[in-house]
Amino acid sequence: MSVTFGEDDLTELAAETAGRLAAEGVPQALASGDSRLWGPEAQAEAAVRLGWLNLPHTSRELLPEIDALVRRARAEGLDHVVLAGMGGSSLAPEVITASDDVPLTVLDTTDPGQVRRALSDRLESTILVVASKSGGTVETDSHRRIYEKAFRDAGIDPASRIVVVTDPGSPLEQTAREAGYQVFLADPNVGGRYSALTAFGLVPSALAGADVERLLDDAAEVLPLLSRTEGNPGLDLGAALGAAAAAGRDKLVIEDGLSEINGLPDWIEQLVAESTGKSGKGILPVVGADPGDAEDELLAGIDTDGVVTVAGPLGAQFLVWEYATAVAGRVLGIDPFNQPNVSESKENTAALLDRAELPVGTPLLVDGPVEVYGELPGDGEAKDLSDVFTRLLEAIPSDGYLAVMAYLDREAAFDAPYAEGASFEEMTDVWSGADAATLRGMLAIRTDRPVTFGWGPRFLHSTGQYHKGGPQNGAFLQITGAVENDLEVPGKPYTLGRLQLAQALGDLGALAGRGRPVVRLHLTDRVAGVARLLAAAREV
Ligand SMILES: O=P(O)(O)OC[C@H]1O[C@H](O)[C@H](O)[C@@H](O)[C@@H]1O
């Protein structure tokens, strides 16, 4: 495992900062679980959040039970593994399984189309892992209810198909015990985004066929380095990230090139954004972007060259990035274990769901299949969608960013029809031409500021904290879409589609309430709408 720097200034800054942290006793304090490292206000939370450093050893206890579950699933022919979990409860398994090239269907969405897609895929051989630390996350609770009904309707006993991962004593533990589900209890002394090597990372990944023992072995190998005062990759990385951000280089562009580790930047995004984006400070991870030459960008490469290069196997990467984030938190003077602003959008959503009608407002403009809502930055009325994009791009502060947030089905682009006999390249062109995520790159070339992209509500558990708690220099573009075939959430008064829209509007309220420029584009026809978005971006 190694962390290296490709610029002399950064090498110097990192060494100086790591030296100072070592002199303050940070590595020893972390190794011994000292909760005072982030100041008195953070101490109570930190006291129950430092268990992740022991996981390479303690999580081994879970392996026999996980192995028994895997054997049962194989024996019963349950070959479609679905994971319902948000943020820290699904991002690690997504990377672990992608890196091991084994299939896992992740549900971290409230999009009815995307959930229907999972439901209609091999229900008869599906095993569902419901993963929620708190046990109260609305998206995950909805997925559990929907799958319970689907199993029952298909004459399948949910107890034979649902496995729960949660913290001891959570409401989900109680529900699961009453329903007779198999329950894995995770370490309550580890927070959601630090939980990659707990039952949250291991249970679904092993079920999908990943080698989780090797993951723990790789993490165990780097562990002794993390108590060192020199040659400590976690300390070096954290010192570099924290000190660079404190000096204004606070946009972290993360690339994984053609590395065998597949998708780690999305996991790092959540870890870094949610841990550091608060009190008006923080590090903004930028994923899926080409590095620009803006002075406030820092390029981190995972097993690929960057200004910071982090090389090593996945299990070790998890641990080193967690360590680095905790260290960066100390350098920046923030509590890396809380997420004070995530709840704000959740509360807005809950309040909206209590209303008879969602307050969607009146469109400012309708451009074909796209309705534009919100307050346009700049003067006068916009004439079309390209104009809306131009105005938003102009509204990005000189040290800021644009966040594109799409509350859509992230698999929908794969439905786009392509010609028979098309090459893989041609198919990829078709998919990217039907994918809302393509908008990120198209807008990015029209500004010298970073542009991020997130699928809603997934990003609410990640960069959503940074948007609201970090430096107030974002401009925001929301995309929502008409729902054709909604899904009831059994036992709840709302449908998934209504919940999804309420989440978008709830977050919009939180951003607008901070005076940030935020525009919502609503696609009245999703396929035509995405095509129109991309065409309009081309015209900017
Ligand atoms: O595991 P859960 O309790 O369902 O939480 C899922 C996610 O929810 C929130 O957004 C937290 O801020 C995340 O850190 C967490 O991973």
From TrEMBL:
Pathway the protein acts in: Carbohydrate degradation; glycolysis; D-glyceraldehyde 3-phosphate and glycerone phosphate from D-glucose: step 2/4
Membrane spanning stretches: none
Record Pfam families: PGI (PF00342)
Keywords tagged on the record: Gluconeogenesis, Glycolysis, Isomerase
UniProt signal peptide: none
Keyword Isomerase: yes
GO terms assigned for molecular function: isomerase activity
Catalytic activity: alpha-D-glucose 6-phosphate = beta-D-fructose 6-phosphate
Entry EC number(s): 5.3.1.9
Family: Belongs to the GPI family.
The protein, known as: Glucose-6-phosphate isomerase
